């Protein structure tokens, strides 16, 4: 099914002898999908992007379960090797493709271990907070569904705490990136892509979160610049959602559009 | 403060020339702390265990914030290098100590990537489910506090789903360990230590969870045997809590004991 969907190959791809082209199964509505796609594009990895349309529930089909039995995006197939979970994919790509610059996932054990530390921390903090908050304050109310206020309040607290930790600890070094780096790592890309989903919040609410954190604001810009123009290109779909939410409340929009976005958001991973 | 607490060094320690002895900051009441301690013991890593007593809120002190600004356990200091998040610690130890057998964290990129996949999956599934369920069905009611029934119900669903995925997917290979391994990896150790906290549940409830999953039951036994006698020794504190919960309900126990356990559980990470 999704095999017939839009395919997009890297233009300046680096290929490996005797290897079939890497397949990336993704929907750009999912933030970890976007991180993997941006990573491939920035590093000139020769890949085929296979859209698994969440709004059409393609990720729940038996066909996709052959790729990822957890039915989540993104997933990759590299020859006979299948892998899911975006952080493990990013690490794999950085190691498997010799053209990827060291700063993305340094060979040095100490630097690499710190990046692991950020990535695991991210799972229990920023990822959990941002997702729960956006769902309960923006998506569900916009769609006219009841939201869990307690969950939103807890997520808000965790989101502030996560942003504060990024500002005061992960960004405390000399460089503009996490852990004091002068160039981004896979951790910068993953965390910034996560924060990008806050773009769909009401502007005042977004300012309330980001306002106190100047370093975080700069870091997002630096990550965006370091991965330009791919960062913006891959986020186009999110910006379209933001536009709809801002200018054209979904409840007042045509039903087809609202249903489409509802499906996308509800199935998001 | 915790520097004067109980110190326990590995007996058959492997040391590295010119390196100070590894310091492990832990409280055996925390399941990731137990995983790291068992790993050190099984692999004969020469370390000093520094107890950071959660019940005394030692993890929240400025002194411990110097070790881990996230104020969570476990954390390590290896010479000048500080690290937290148990999965990143386990990976670091497996790479930094040459005596650690390859099966714990294989050098092979494909095997290693699959282990990363399990570990990241674990964070958003089993870890979240087990923790939320135990807290809301056992700890809070035992202490006479109101619990969140909705959270417990969602956690129960995620816990069954996680166990089912372990049974049908992660354990589907020929070997007795995750990913078809014949020997355990750091993923086996981390996930089994997580499941061990279900020991404090009511027996019928525990049977309800584990009953349908025969492979999971066997896998826990295999992991325990492969890390014997350290596995049982490090879990003694959890078994004491289980005993108290089973034979002597906390609300009827002396207040000191109940308060002590409440503090421990409430501060658990």
UniProtKB/TrEMBL annotation, chains A, B:
GST C-terminal domain location: 108-250
Entry keyword Cell membrane: no
Pfam families: GST_C_2, GST_N
GST N-terminal domain location: 20-101
Matches recorded under SUPFAM superfamilies: GST C-terminal domain-like, Thioredoxin-like
Keyword Transferase annotated: yes
InterPro entries (alphabetical): Glutathione-S-Trfase_C-like (IPR010987), Glutathione-S-Trfase_C_sf (IPR036282), Glutathione_S-Trfase (IPR040079), Glutathione_S-Trfase_N (IPR004045), GST_C_Theta (IPR040077), GST_N_Theta (IPR040075), GSTT1/2/3 (IPR043377), Thioredoxin-like_sf (IPR036249)
Gene Ontology biological-process entries: toxin catabolic process
Reactions accelerated catalytically: RX + glutathione = an S-substituted glutathione + a halide anion + H(+)
Listed EC numbers: 2.5.1.18
Keyword tags: Detoxification, Transferase
GO molecular function, one term: glutathione transferase activity
Family, similarity comment: Belongs to the GST superfamily. Theta family.
PANTHER family assigned: GLUTATHIONE S-TRANSFERASE T1-RELATED (PTHR44750:SF1)
Protein name listed in UniProt: glutathione transferase
